[in-house]
Amino acid sequence: MLLWAGVICLLVGIACFAIDRRAVHVFHDRIPGYWFRRIRLTTDYAKGARWLMASILVLAAAVLAQAVWGERALLHAISRGALAFLACLAASSAVLHIIKLVVGRRRPRDELEHELYGFRLFHYNPQYDSFPSGHAMTICCVAVILSGAVPQLAPLWLAVALYLALTRAALNSHFLSDVFIGAAIGLIAARETVLLLFHDLARPWF
Question: Where are the domains of the chain?
């Protein structure tokens, strides 16, 4: 299922190239300031740095607790989940940042403020880093790990990940194609990492 979800996100992302510029103006013109402010309150829950630090702290705490109290099933599961997330984040980030360096896409703010849109292939510039979305990639990695750890709530994890990913487009931080393709990278890279290295977290429907 996760593979198909990733493929669907990839195909939707490719299709979104046709409407990216129009969507930026629709989001900018149609989302009221009230909702814009509330969306901004939630969007950073998908920020990679937060999840990276949280997973490192959780892993360290679980390892320390096991050293003090001995092997416990819950502590082992927590440490494996945190380690799996770090591995998934590393794998997907490698793919994402290679694409960012190669593609070099302007941010939606350039479209809104200066009517500038486009790509600078093979010309690294930190201002040309819109494609794909790192937030979307990160939160989809989180959703994969949580789906393996608590599979009964997998639809909830994936729905929350989709919402947080889409906030990046709603806030005009990314184009729609950036979001869906970032999500695809997160889903597929995390799934493959779990299947390859963390069999205890893999589910038959992955």
Answer: 2-201
